[in-house]
Amino acid sequence: MNINEQRMSAAPFSEKAFYLAEFRGRTLAIAAPKEVLHEATALESVLKELELNDTRVVLISNAGDALRAQTGAEALRGDEPRLEGRVWRGLSASPCVGVETDAAGGFEATTRDVALRLRVSKLLWIDAGGALLRDDGRRHSFVDIDELRALLEREPADSRTPLLRETLAMLSAGLPAVNLCTLEGLADELFSYEGSGTLFTVRRYVEVRQLGIDDFDAAWDLVARGVAEGFLAPRTEFEIERVLACGIGAFVEGRHLAGIGALLPWEVGGPPVAEIASLYTLTRFVGEGVGGHLVRFAVDRARDQGCAFVFACTTSDRVVAFFERHGFRQVDPSRVPVEKWRDYDPARRSQARCLATDL
Fold this sequence. Notes:
This protein is an alpha/beta fold. The chain contains 14 helices and 15 strands. The longest helix is centred in the first third of the chain and has 21 residues, at 3-23. The chain is elongated and about 75 Å long.
């Protein structure tokens, strides 16, 4: 088995390992109201995995009996004056500590108080309704604080308005992130690129930058996924290394790789030109503008490098339309550097369409 095959066979695991490594040694909070905590088989498996990963969990609920069953100990009260210290001491002896909210105060408001008192880095809010949905039924994968304010102003009040208002209050008070998902989708939301719910963050969620060496494993996985789904052309080991070395990534929360691309330089005997290659966005982020962020970053970088134009090649009508929306136009393949077609798959070459934008 060559190195490509080894890495591609490892891709499903490395995705999960990426998140496990991020959570190792940290404390997560999981809030689950009593109506979902009583059916908690999915939660038990996640808690066990986090325990093996040396990740501590504060389980917040208004179901005292279920909390005791999950943690094996009496739950702390969320309004205790010494809550912070008691949780800290509890986590030194057990990987999971339960905190019971005050029923009179309302689950949403008291959960907010607990999360802010403990200043956790992430709260996973379990709700039977799962992710927020758009008008067309698609999931809101990511919502920043300004978008959440706009949603609350625009949408009529419903059963989840209190939850969303407390989410806004937590973000406004400095909690970095809140994930909203179902209990059944908790593992996917924690451990997969695709996720299952909605992530609320303080900052605008996309940061685009060049890939660093520590990003290469995750980027390799996305390239392999794009090839397997037929969106990207297969590449040799040398070509993959060139893509990574010239790669750019769109990162969520500064860490999670949402989409990738590469700006490949080509020398043509005059002003250089550049190609946007291996552009791929995870399904979760389609419609979130990630692809557009990558293209704009690449075009700006090519302009800074003195390139005459930027081009891209694809066999997909959808990708052609995407590039045209971002100012590219279809051009004759003869305008593309001849070296581009060296060792190129003839069948794919016959279907390839080229687009370019002058700088």
